Amino acid sequence: MERKAVTFGRFNTFSRGHESFIQSILLEWSKVSIGVIENNPITVEDNLFANFIKECDRNYIKPLNKIQHRMNLMELILDEKNFLENCSIIKINRPELYPEKFNEMFPKNVYDVVFAIDTDSQFDIKKIGIFELLLNRPIKLVKPDKIIHSSDIIKMGIEEIGFSRSAIDYCQKHGIPLGGEYYEK
Question: I want to staple 64 with a disulfide (CB 3.0 to 4.6 A). Which of 39, 73, 124, 131 is the partner?
């Protein structure tokens, strides 16, 4: 049986960096499942990795777009790039809180967990090791041609470079945040 890839994230606004990441996965695996994390409130006081989970929460743009918008935008862009037929987009709970559920949905004998490696990001390096422990499986790494985080796109004011025209148009049409800033309806 051919192995499949699985990756996950919040994917608040699907950027050109995300496009490059999915493309790099599809160069090595024929199919990828993309878990889009729901934004559910959490309590992590008794969790061994509580500090890491809190760091994850600090490391994204707020507010998160509604999950259906995030999934619709991802589907639109992946279809535009002709990747959609090799991708499945799935709503998931946070793997760091529910590793058993994640491993049940994406069995180790079928799926490789794949992350992008950004050697300039201490958080990304830490994230890889912690998720290997949490999920009790190795994390495979790909090096996308373009690594750019949505928060950096917004901070640098390079929306036209960081997001495809379709992503910008979708956000404007639906009056949803582009990475973290609201457009006027």
Answer: 39
